[in-house]
Design a protein that fits this description.
406 residues; five-stranded mixed beta sheet; alpha+beta
Length: 406
Amino acid sequence: MSAPTPDPQKRLEQFVVNNADLERLESLLNQFNIFEAVGMVRQEIRHSHFLAFLLNPSAAHHLGDIFLKTFLKQLLLEADNATVSPIEIDVATLTDTKVRREWKNIDILLISPGSKIVCAIENKVDAGEHSNQLQRYRQIVQKEFPEHRYVFVFLTLSGIPPYGDEDQQHWSTYSYAHIADLIDNLSDRYQFAISSEVKNLMQHYSTLIRRHLMEDSEIAQLCRQIYQQHKEALDLIFEHRPDHEANIFDLLKTLVVNTPADQIAIDHAWRSRKILGFAIRAWDALPFQTTCRGWTSSKRIAIFEFKVEPARIFLDLTLGPGPTNIRQAIFNALKTHQIQGLTTRLPEASWVPLLRNIAVDRISPETPIETITEDLYPFWESFLNDELPKINDAIVSELSKIDAAS
């Protein structure tokens, strides 16, 4: 006889009550970290920015070339393909090093004219290598700096080598764990030479790496332990987790509802499809009705629609079925007034975007709803105050002529 299935509520109670691992995890995650606060956790570009700051001898960290030299010496000590020795780096003066970001698509490029050394760093937080990427970068550096010696660094979360045999011959591997150790070591050794603000910043960055970018971090270990012990409860929570796109849809609905009702009215709200349609009140006095079935219950020919997709939020002026002369007049009005986002020709099909604008770009499931709100509100304000009056004037002036003629 099989054991009875545990009650779902009991699973959740066991998960939240007297769960020391969960309390420890929450404690770690609740510690303030400036880099977490600005959404940097897995933002490769921002990691490269901060690493470039630490590696730049002229930056305001007041370490001079100490971080740069220590980084290179540790790297070269373990490298099998080094063209420069750690001793040469130790006696060299690298204070003249120039730091370039995204030069010819190379994440970080370090150039010391006096020592004739160039170091190229390719930083990979999540994305993998592109085809022949490392080979192209190496050839570019060798062509642009023919009199220099080269250090090519492949920086990844775990220090894995590049794929190609040729790349492995030229590119030295380095991990974020090494970066964290280097930061902790230098911030301790030079604690009296650097300001408390810079030291705190370095420690926050080291903590970020250890919390989120290392496979054996305490947070990673706790997560694995908690999941193993409470798999059923966590699976249940995941099954009923909030729908990110649905939350965005609710945000859009609030935005529209809070707009004066004499200007805008919700026409349809299809939550499952993440489409929110709203109408312009002034257009209801125009010959805007259609008798075609399958359109919205309001029978309006043109309706604005917010559409939530996994990566973006669009705002469309959707043109539905209706009399050809009305549809053509709407298109001509927008074209004559040079309204941005207008399709190049009048679509023959119904239910298609006549105007399309991107309200919010580059959304991911990890994008906080607060960040989306910060982007969405300025867009909505600009739409109401700038774009909508132009669209409204164009359509009202053109459709009024048809109304008067009829």
